[in-house]
Amino acid sequence: MTILVFALVALAVCALLVLVHRWLWIRLVRDTTAPGGRTRRIGTALAITLPLLSVAALTTGRAGAPFWLQQTVAWPGYLWLAVLLYLTLTMLVAEPIRALSLRRLAHRDSAGSVAELPEPVEVPAAAAPAAAPATAERPATGDGLSRRRFVARTVGGAAAAVALGTVGAGTYGVLRGPSVKRVRVPLAKLPRAAHGFRIAVVSDVHLGPVLGRAHTQRIVDTVNRTQPDLIAIVGDLVDGSVPDLGSAAEPLRRLAARHGSYFVTGNHEYFSGAQQWIDHVRELGLNPLENARRELPYFDLAGVNDIQGEREGKGPDFGAALGDRDRTRAAVLLAHQPVVIHDAVRHGVDLQLSGHTHGGQLWPGNYLAELANPTVAGLERYGDTQLYVSRGAGAWGPPVRVGAPSDITVVELASFQA
Length: 418
Description:
Order of helices and strands: HHHHEEHEHEHHEEEHEHEHEEE
Strand order of the largest sheet: 1-12-2-3-4-5
Structural class: alpha/beta
Strand content: 5-15%
Largest sheet: 6 strands, mixed
Shape: elongated
Helix content: 40-55%
Radius of gyration: 29 Å
């Protein structure tokens, strides 16, 4: 039954995408170009090729295709998905403008033809000119078509410029690297000696066929400049295997913090092979917390596996991570998905650090993210537990962010006793 539902949903999504692409082809190619012309042929070829590249970008990794092939299709395929989103939105906004412009054009043509109709004049048969060929009326029709095409080009060009500008700016924001965000979090149980303790929170880097070693280096440099006391990587570090992405993750070896660097799995680690990455980040000097806890000098640091691990029998185990601890000490929990906050509350966690949502990544995706997550971004309180959700340091799929800039958050713990 589940497979049938999935198949029906997939079929409906594919049908919708086909209809959207056909509508965009009509508005941006057919209505703006001359029949049989080179421009129309190129536009039609792109309308077929780009969605195929998007499908390839989404499937080659899961299908085990060679990494060079994944990289080849990833950039154009993923970027087209972002362009498609904003091109569709802008064309929907532009559609009433186009319809109104064409209506006014038709009304003006109709009024002009009536007003300029000449009075009938009787002409002697001998003086009458020879009958004009059937094409004599075509110039007026041709003028009307060219005006309609001008409207289509103006509206379509403006929509395309807005969409491409939006995606271009969003891509630049990702490739430039995450900014540093600072958040102060008071904890009632934190001793005075730990006042000002800084945790650099890194989430959702998504190393893969698009974001590679250079992106990792930018993140490492940014983190190290903040001089944190502790570094927490809260999942979705990679989208691929260690053989393909081991070199891209290599700069993580240079992360520096007084109390070390820690890592918990995200759902994408389980798509890529979680155990191989747990072993590899340990080789890079990170400390994986697999449903485990470390007693630091001033508070307990715990980490749980991602929910996706339940499919492999390695899901989150809050009892193992937090069950037997001294509850008079403050507890900070690393958990990839914010949705486990209610388990954290039950186990007396003071602060949960999460990612997963990307802050929505592509507006209006934040509204969809709100449906599945208790907090999409920022700091919120649930009972005696505070939850901080990072927007992430990378991007999944399209290397584009709109309305949700990437960040590395420095969480500064504050003691009530200070």
